Amino acid sequence: MTWPFENDTSAAVKAFAVRSLKVSRKKNSLIVAAVLIITFLLTLVLSAGNIFVSAQRTESLRLIGTTAETTLSNPTEGQKELLRSSTLAKHVGMELYFGTIKDTGSRIGISYIDVAEWEWHRFPLVRNFVGQFPKKENEIMAALWLLEDIGIKEPELGMVVSVTYFDRDNAVHSQEFILSGYFEDNSYIRSGGRGNLYVSPAFAMSVDKMSETLYMDLTGSNKENALQQLAAELRLQSGQSLTLSPAYESAGKVSWITIGFLVVIIVLSGYLFIYSFFYFSVSKDVQMYGELITIGATKKQIKRIMYYQIRRLLIRGTLIGGTAGFIGAYAILPYFINIFFDGQINIGFVSVIVGTVVSIALSSLVVYISCNKPVKMLASMQPINTIRYENYSNIKYTKIPGIKSYVLDMAWRNLCRRRKNAIMLIVSFTLGCTAFLAISLFYESIDPKQYVDRYYQYDIEVTDESGEGTTITKNMLTQINGLSGIEKIDVIERQRIFIEYDEDIFQEYLMDFQRKTSLDISSYDRKTLSEQFWNYVYSLPEKYAEDDEPGAAYLSEEYAEILPIGTVFSIKVSQVAAYTVHVAGYIDVEDSLPAGGMAPVLYLSDATKNSIGGEDSIFQIGIMCAAGQDNEVLTEIESILPTGGVKIESKAAWEEKLSSNMSIFYIALGGLSIFLLFNSILNFINTMYSSLQERSAEFKTLSNVGMTERQIKAMLRHEGTIYTMIIASLVTLIACVGAKLLFGGISGIAPYAEFHFPIMQLLGIVGLVGIICMGVPGVMYKKMKP
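Above: the chain sequence. Below: its structure as tokens.
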């Protein structure tokens, strides 16, 4: 800005700045390249973080089945009226529940959702929707997994779907519906195979409802506070509660910590490179700017010249880097993100735009902060000071005890009097090496083999998915046992049991069940609860069987607070012969097996399981194969088992698929780590070269007073040795201390990760640091020598 009382010298300032840019094209191209790469990497990392966190939340919401932030069961007319006018709630949708379908174990029901609930909360989560929302009284729509569960494997629009269901009075109704739409969703995974067929508004008006649930979003950014205020406003009655959906509770925290770590590394690396490069560039041009000051250039004009150049370079770098990053986010990120989410996530245009804009702003901030101090230093110098300017400080230094070599002592003295230069080099190189080791740790810890070993105990797993327990017969098991190439077979059997419902014991459990499944059970009477309070009982895994006392029952550890050890209740097989059991312990959530009904899944000791009687069915077969026999055994098993109702999974096939998917991901990680390391090496070489050029007169003086060329090279080698010792020590210390902390973030993203300290990479980094630090100064000096 030019004040009215000032001479307008903007044309002269601009002309000088442009001329200066043309003279220093090589130097400026390096700054533009640095800004370009920083902007490009930040765009990719920030876009990836935004998309990844959003994808994690979307996956969580898909398991729940609705994007609603909270629900209210069986609202009164007064509460409905309050919600319509409330400023705390928005996007209020409704679901009416009418009954359960016969022969589905109360897992599948019939309900109506209004258009608001479908458009705001359900439709954004479904995939491959075909057809339309039901309108006529006899129209219905459903998820594909649900249609398959009731026997429709190949649905077609307009086909007849026969449904027999129980209403609120337990009366049986049979009706034929026309399929108006179907879609894919994942809600059955979390709900244990529970869901509803969706009927039309016309049907909902003609039938008495069993229960009603409202789904809604909360206004404002503080969801917990809005939830509390809304609960007070609605005056909740007995059996009603408002809780925040689990998908919105601290979603993406670990992912953002990891992304934040990468952003900090990139920003710091870029700052150190640009600062050191610009600082030495200014140091070389001090005399030229001193001449401008001598002929009358003001402090403000010097700053304008410098900042004009900075802006020109910044615009070039950020525009090119931002554009490349934006294109890369669309071309590369979809592949990487969908490796983790099985190809189900769409890359949002807004997410990439936000990542690009933030990266450009961060890059601009880094450049201005990097250049601010050198510009101020140059503008504030007096003409006489520019003539005798030297880029070092005459400060006291601590002599290393026991040094007898004058050359080594001079090397140490040089580092101390150029302390700022030395610190910048050490920090820059240490950051680059640390980033390389951090990404190496990520690379080493995430391995497809670790994934399949964690989630697949056996080489081949055969699971009955029919829910009836009749698909895998004893005869089939006998045939599988007779196959060659099998070393071990484990069979998991289960049977259906009923748990006698006791409100004092299971009330809190049912509230938790309702929150997890979004199934409204507040209107169920005691008879209905008793009929539907069933689940499967499995044999207790060997690692938990500390004793075999009769009556010992184990639950999943997620119920430890709700159903504590010592809780006593009764179980029945086929509604007869009650047997009393007590909670004796808990198994890990990852060892839990699939549920079926509303009651908790039980794991019984052998003594207890034999006592309750009943007939077990084969649920799962785990097969360990001889080395190299997986494919042959898999082919034989597929020929024995039926084509439907059975899921066959092969560890080898999954490992091959994951390895193929993640190969490019590993290449990208390797490229990023090598870039960060190369950036620090380039910064070291550039800074060292600029430093040696500044000291060229000093070297001549040393030669004139009798110091040989061999001694000068030895002095430079000693300086490199000191750099090596400091950098290697810092990198080793940070690696040892930070590895476990970083692995905590990695395991949050990939729970199957295993800690592998990158010892070989650390040794390689230390060796590389030694070669660069001790070799570069000598090579540079040799090139400088006339």
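The two ends are 47 Å apart (CA to CA).
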